[in-house]
């Protein structure tokens, strides 16, 4: 599965790294591409192991707000 998640609060490349590393630690997350310039995180994942809500919770746990 692939989800495009819109977030606020990412301001730099360091923010991208922070959220990418946190998501890549999740079982079932296969690939993450975060952009502070667009405010979008694209996550490819195994829907049998993890869901969008759990991914959003990890993003918010890193200090960012999920908007859509």
Structure summarized in a few sentences:
This protein is of the alpha+beta class. The protein has helices at residues 13-24, 52-61, and strands at residues 2-8, 29-35, 40-45, 65-66. It has a single domain (2-66), classed as Alpha-Beta Plaits, CATH 3.30.70.
Structural class: alpha+beta
- End-to-end CA span: 17 Å
- Helical element count? 2
Give the neighbour order of strands across the main sheet: 2-3-1-4
According to CATH, what is the topology? Alpha-Beta Plaits
* Quaternary organisation: single chain
Q: Key terms for this structure?
A:
4-stranded antiparallel sheet; 32% helix; 4 strands; Alpha-Beta Plaits; single chain; 32% strand; alpha+beta; 2 helices
């Amino acid at each position: 599965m692939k989800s495009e998640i819109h977030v606020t609060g990412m301001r730099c490349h360091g923010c991208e790294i922070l959220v990418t590393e946190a998501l890549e630690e999740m079982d079932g997350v296969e690939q993450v591409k975060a952009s502070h310039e667009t405010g979008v995180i694209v996550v490819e994942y195994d829907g049998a192991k993890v869901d969008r809500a759990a991914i959003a919770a990890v993003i918010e746990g890193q200090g960012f707000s999920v908007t859509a």
